[in-house]
Amino acid sequence: MGTTQPIANFTYEDYRTTPADERYELLDGDLIMVPAPNLTHQKVQSRLGRRLAQFIEERALGEFFFAPCDVVLADTDVVQPDLLFVSRDREHLLSGGDNVRGAPDLVVEILSPATAERDRGYKRSLYERHGVAEYWLVDPAKETVSIHCRRGRALTLTLTHTFGRGETLHSPLLAGLKVDLDDVFSS
Taking the model in full, what pTM does it have? Predict the structure, then answer.
């Protein structure tokens, strides 16, 4: 008769011992290596990130970060979103100085073949469960940005709009933000 091996659930303390030169995320206790993004992903991340950072900094709205930046949502859930924003009202999430301890106001994930399913599924529900106010899914292949928001006191992130080339992205969370997606997705 065979015996079953216990499944190891990793915690944040285990995660902290991973090699510094490799990217990992901790999802429901599973340690997942995240491959380096391709060049298209990095160009889109850089272009969109610069515009967001400038808007946030000029208005002193809070703090903006690029990956890799650990977001500790729970002892068994640590993610590294591509881009994230923490408002001044929630700066207490940054008090430890090492990472973000709780749900950022805005999380942006840029889809890649290796992460798209996880970003659309598990991570979307994870961000929803922990209280992210706005979640963007950026699809470099389709050249779109889908914005998911909480409405009122709702606990769910609902798709509010999908923007594409030839359009100017507007964010319900960041009033006044205008991003020309032709500039973000240009070759």
Answer: 0.91
d(CA 149, CA 19): 34
- Helix, coil or strand: residue 30: strand
- Assigned token pair, 182: 């032709």
User: For the chain, how far is it from start to end, CA to CA, in angstroms?
Assistant: 60
The Cα 134–Cα 107 span in angstroms is 7
Bridge partners of residue 30, in order along the sequence: 27
Structure tokens at 129: 């469960």
| Count of CB atoms situated within 10 Å of the CB of 19 | 8
- Is the residue at 21 inside a domain? no
Q: What are phi and psi of 57, to 5 degrees?
A: -70, -45
* Distance from the Cα of residue 37 to its chain's centroid: 14
Percent helix, percent strand, percent coil in the chain, to nearest 5: 25, 30, 45
Give the pairing type, strands 71-74 and 100-101.
parallel
Q: What is the pLDDT of residues 147-172, one digit of tens each?
A: 999 987 778 999 999 999 999 999 99
Is 159 a domain residue?
yes
Residue 106: how many other CB atoms lie within 10 Å: 25
Q: How many domains does the chain have?
A: 1
Domain containing 81 equals 38-184
State pLDDT tens for residues 31-41: 888 888 899 99
134 with 105: CB under 8 angstroms? yes
